[in-house]
């Protein structure tokens, strides 16, 4: 059985019908990339999982447990972490205080992530631990948001375009951290615009088009499938 399972998920913004029955299964401890063109519904899918957009039909299950329609805070406590596109930090709290805000108990029998581990991933955050988060650069705020989510000890981490606007060296570091998160047994759903990165880190890729999953396979299968890439990914 999959750890996270979306079945026939529909979502609307007002009268606009955005998700048209998304079926998506994320195995335990696996990095999955969710690809698609701008506006295909990737962010909406993540928000619908988190309860930030209320699904109008279908279900979201974690480990078989139905989370559909629950409140975002509750869904987070059940073990789904979310790093949204718009880096959410508490601007008036220090870096360290932001990290402390993220701490939640791990599931029984698993080791908790520590703030020291976060500083080991991103030494820059340690250097700036006493600075208010509002003064950080966009890249540093991105690192902080990822770390804060990890400290919640999620079983699945949803990450929306983490490398957007980052300098190439930082992109590398963020990718290494995501790979390490996967190695530590956390499932990851990564929305990533850069195809090479998405294919490099993921064990499985899913492509969205017009609010549905139009392809599921391995990175190699997608690389060997020019029709799918042409129809759903490349800019015409
Ligand atoms: N708050 C909103 N209200 C109304 N429509 C929205 C809202 N957010 C997104 N949409 C629309 O929903 C569709 C899917 O958007 P979504 O953000 O899920 O796309 P995406 O695949 O993440 O692409 P990108 O991040 O490149 O915009 C788009 O047509 C978008 O214009
Ligand atoms: Mg998006």
CATH homologous superfamily assignment: P-loop containing nucleotide triphosphate hydrolases
- Rg from C-alpha positions? 17 Å
Total number of strands:
10
The helix count comes to: 10
Termini Cα gap: 38 Å
Strand order of the largest sheet: 6-7-8-3-9-10
Uncertain residue ranges: none
Mean pLDDT: 95
How does this structure look, described?
By secondary structure, the chain is an alpha/beta fold. The chain has one domain: P-loop containing nucleotide triphosphate hydrolases (Rossmann fold, 3-Layer(aba) Sandwich). It has 10 helices and 10 strands. The strands form 2 sheets. It has a 6-stranded mixed β-sheet with strand order 6-7-8-3-9-10, with helices on both faces. The protein has a 4-stranded antiparallel β-sheet with strand order 2-1-4-5. The model has no long low-confidence stretch (mean pLDDT 95). Adenosine-5'-triphosphate (ATP) binds next to β2 and α1.
Blueprint (SSEs and pairs):
Elements: E1 4-13, E2 16-26, E3 31-36, H1 42-50, E4 55-62, E5 65-66, H2 72-77, E6 80-83, H3 95-102, H4 115-121, H5 123-127, H6 138-150, E7 156-160, H7 168-183, E8 187-191, H8 195-201, E9 204-209, E10 212-217, H9 219-223, H10 226-232
Parallel strand pairs: 3-8, 3-9, 6-7, 7-8
Antiparallel strand pairs: 1-2, 1-4, 4-5, 9-10
This protein binds adenosine-5'-triphosphate and magnesium ion (MG).
Residues 13, 16, 18, 36, 38-44 line the site of adenosine-5'-triphosphate (ATP).
């Amino acid at each position: 059985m999959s750890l996270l399972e979306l079945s026939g998920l529909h979502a609307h913004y007002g009268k606009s019908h955005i998700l048209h029955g998304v079926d998506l299964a994320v195995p335990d401890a696996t990095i999955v990339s969710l690809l698609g063109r701008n506006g295909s519904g990737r962010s909406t899918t993540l928000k619908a999982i988190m309860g930030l957009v209320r699904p109008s039909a279908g279900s979201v299950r974690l480990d078989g447990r139905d989370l559909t329609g629950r409140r975002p805070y509750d869904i987070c406590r059940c073990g789904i972490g979310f790093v949204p596109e718009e880096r959410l930090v508490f601007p008036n709290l220090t870096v360290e205080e932001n990290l402390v805000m993220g701490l939640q108990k791990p599931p029984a029998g698993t080791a908790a992530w520590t703030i020291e581990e976060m500083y080991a991933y991103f030494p820059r955050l340690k250097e700036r631990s006493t600075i208010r988060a509002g003064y950080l650069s966009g890249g540093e705020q991105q690192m902080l948001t990822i770390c804060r989510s990890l400290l919640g000890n999620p079983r699945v981490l949803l990450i929306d375009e983490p490398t957007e606007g980052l300098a190439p060296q930082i992109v590398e570091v963020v990718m290494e951290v995501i790979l390490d998160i996967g190695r530590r047994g956390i499932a990851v759903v990564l929305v990533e615009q850069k195809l090479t990165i998405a294919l490099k880190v993921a064990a499985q890729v899913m492509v969205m088009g017009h609010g549905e999953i139009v392809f599921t396979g391995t990175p190699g299968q997608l690389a060997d499938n020019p029709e799918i890439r042409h129809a759903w990914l490349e800019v015409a």
